[in-house]
Specification:
Blueprint: H1 2-7, E1 12-16, H2 20-32, E2 37-40, H3 46-50, E3 58-62, H4 71-82, E4 86-91, E5 105-107, H5 113-121, H6 130-139, H7 146-152, H8 157-174, H9 178-189, H10 200-221, E6 223-224, E7 228-232, H11 238-249, E8 253-260, E9 265-272, H12 278-286, E10 292-295, E11 299-305, H13 309-324
Parallel strand pairs: 1-2, 1-3, 3-4, 4-5, 7-8
Antiparallel strand pairs: 6-7, 8-9, 9-11, 10-11
Helix pairs in contact: 2-5, 2-6, 2-9, 5-6, 6-8, 8-10, 10-11, 12-13
């Protein structure tokens, strides 16, 4: 903890999410501020991490959703920090209804965080850093925005998707290995293509082989409800498993749940095939079972106490039917 506190005394600090969009956002921000220290966190832990910050001059937060449960407390802490430093909070997740926007908050749900971060710091960046923003957009299924579609024309689209796929597959395969992600972010901030970063191609290959195992497992173990399909304990990537649950369950919504013994709860990944806003439904249902959740209209996540999983799945499925029906 002491070492962490020392790192949080850096003059420029970047807090970002650990998925492909968060890593690309962090890389772009680090290009704008090369001396910054980068730390990976998430909505649940953000408030605790902010309490460790001392004497920072510039604080950049990328791709971290506002947690509904501590929105007011988080808002107060950020306002306090904004009086002492240059604060830039860049995000694209839907906001809780009670959330107040401030002039340090840069928010747009129609684009990914990588695109937002590039556009915000554009004057500090080489134009080629758009490529990193494109990788983040592809990894976050946000590559159909006007800016990204325009930027893609400057490169061979096939190579961009190869590089983005290599990066995203490797990141998903390494899971919560944050030291790997920190090392990965450094060459990205220098616009080194993913296929030239040591180990990344081999990791992407292993990820592709592993994904085939996920697909087969889900095909053989998927459970089907009236409006959704789910799979439990793949011991693998739940975001991938949720996609295949919807596919093999022949439903508009797929859910993958993985038990986390440390938390006594299940972590869930929920994917919509395009017709249903799972974020809104999840926010209204998860809290009734002592859980929490949220995300994007087509991709959301949740944490549900272990004793409530089955009841939650059925309540969520029922709400899907009422909303979609």
């Amino acid at each position: 903890m002491k070492e962490l506190q020392n790192r949080f005394k850096a003059k420029t600090l970047i807090l970002t999410h650990g998925d492909s969009d968060g890593i690309c956002s962090g890389a772009i921000a680090k290009t704008a501020y090369p001396d910054a220290y980068v730390y990976f966190t998430n909505p649940v832990n953000l408030l605790d991490k902010l309490s460790l910050i001392e004497n920072v001059k510039t604080l950049i937060i990328c791709d971290i959703a506002i947690d509904e449960r501590n929105c007011s407390e988080l808002h107060a802490k950020l306002n306090e920090l904004a009086k002492k430093c240059n604060l830039y909070y860049i995000d694209h997740h839907p906001l809780p209804e009670s959330c107040q926007k401030e002039n340090w908050f840069y928010h747009d749900t129609e684009v990914c965080s990588s695109e937002l971060t590039y556009r915000f710091f554009e004057k500090r960046l080489n134009r080629d850093m758009r490529r990193i923003a494109i990788y983040g957009a592809i990894g976050d299924f946000c590559d159909n925005t006007p800016h990204v579609e325009s930027w893609v024309k400057d490169w061979d689209k096939r190579n961009l998707y190869f590089q983005a796929g290599t990066l995203t597959q490797a990141i998903l395969y390494k899971g919560r290995e944050y030291e790997f992600k920190r090392k990965l972010l450094e060459p990205l901030s220098k616009d080194i293509i993913p296929s030239n970063i040591p180990e990344l191609l081999e990791l992407a290959r292993e990820a592709a082989i592993n994904e085939e195992k996920i697909r087969v497992f889900v095909k053989e173990n998927v459970e089907v409800l009236e409006n959704s399909a789910y799979v439990v304990n793949t011991n693998n990537s739940i975001s991938k498993a949720a996609i295949y649950a919807a596919s093999y369950g022949r439903r508009e919504v797929g859910i993958a749940a993985e038990y986390r013994e440390k938390n006594g709860a299940y972590d869930l990944s929920i994917r919509s095939r395009g017709e249903i806003d799972v974020n809104q439904i999840l926010r209204s249902v998860a809290s009734k079972f002592g859980g929490s959740g949220g995300g994007h209209p087509l991709a959301a996540g949740a944490r549900i106490p272990e004793d409530s999983l089955n009841a939650f799945l059925r309540a969520f499925d029922k709400k899907l039917g009422k909303t979609h029906g």
